Amino acid sequence: MATLNFNLVNQSGSSTAYAYITGQAIDNSNALFLLRADGKTAYYPTSPSATLTALAQDCAIPLGAVGSTTTVTIPYLAGARLWFVRDGKLTFYLNPGPALVEPSSSNPSDANYNLFWDFCEFTWNSSQLYVNITYVDFVSLPIALALTNTSGTTKTVQGLPADGLATICTALKAQNTTDGAGWDKLIVTNNGTNLRAVSPNTGIVLNSGLFSTYYAAYVNQVWSKYASTTLTVNTQASAGDVTATVSNGTLNFSTGSITYAQPSTADIFSNSSGAFAVSGNSTKDAITARLAAAFNRSTLLIDTNQPNGETVANYYQNPVTNHYSRICHATTLGNRGYAFPYDDVAPANGTDQSGSVYDSSPKLLTVTLGGGATTTAAESVERVAAGTDAPAPLTGNPKQSRLRKTLRKLFQKK
Question: Residue 5: which of 69, 91, 96 has the closest Cα?
Fold first, then answer.
C-alpha cells in the first residue's frame, strides 16, 4: 500500500496543540478513515447503533513543544482534512453509516465551537497530491504549506501571518464602519477574544437576515448592462467561449439553452444555491463557476469577458463586493487562499488565488501551524487597504473548480 509522510510543525505558540486527519481510504473501498494518535495507525470506524457515538480510538496527534516537528504517515485518501486545534482537543462523533460528525463553525451548540481550531484540505491518489488552505467557511489559525517533490522542487502557500486573525477582524470592523452592511457580525468571540472570522455564507447561518439584499442593486446593474451588451464567458473546457445577453429578465446563453435568473445574495456567497445550484450539465456548471467568481469579485460591470478579461487588480473594486474575501486575500502572505468555493477561477495563464499546491510526484508535505510572520498594526492596515503583495504565478493545473466543489460535498456533515 502506498504511503506518504507529512511533517507537522508547531509554531502555534502553544505546547498543547493537536492534529487530526480524516478522509476516505481509496485503497480500502473509500472507507471512512481517521489516523490514530501515534500518527501512523489507521482507524476505520464501524457503523454505530446510535447517532453521536464517541470514537473508539484516540485520534488526537500531539504536536509537542513549540518548534517541534511531528511526522505522520498517510495512505491514499480522498476528500481528506488535516485539522488543528490549539489549547484543547477536538470532539468528533460517529453516526450510523458510519458517517463522521465533524466540528462545526456554524453551530454554537457544537462541542468545539469555543475552541481555536482550523483545517486544510487534501486528496492524495495515484495521480497527484492536491492540498489547499481554505477560508471558505471561516478563518482562525494560520496554516502554511510546503510541498516538496521527488526532484527536490518545493511549492509553497504562506497563508496568514501570525497576527492574521486580528488583522482580518480589524479590517471587517473598518469595512462595517464604511458601509454598515454587517461585516462585524462575521467575527466570533469568546470572553472578548477573537476565535474566528466566518465567511458571509456561514455568517448568514449564524445571523438571521444578515446580507439579505446586499447584492440586489449590483445584480440589477449587471442585468441592465447585459441587456444591451454581450457577456462572453470562457468555460476553460470543451465548450470554449460562450456568449449571453439578458432578455425578459433572464441571462440567456448562446449554447445548450442555458439560462440564469437573477442570483440572490445567498446564491452569490454560497456559489451553490438557487441560480447557482449545481445542475449536472458540465457546460452550465463551468459557466456557473465563472459567474459566481465574477459576482464575488464584482468584476461584471468592468469586464465583459469572464474570466479572461480580468486582472487581479480589478478584483473587489466595486463598493458592493465580497469584502471578507478581499480582506482574507489582502491579509495572507502572497494573497492566496480559498475565500469562496470558486476562488480557484482565474484567467488563462493568470494568477492563482486558491492557496493550493499539487504535484504528481510528491515526496514530503510540510504543514506549519502558527504563521511565519507578524506585522505591526500600521503595516496590517496598509496591506489590507492596498493589497500590495503580488500573487504567485499559477503553475500546474488551472482548472480545480470542479474538484473543489466535489471536495466541498464530501466534507459536508452527514
Answer: 69
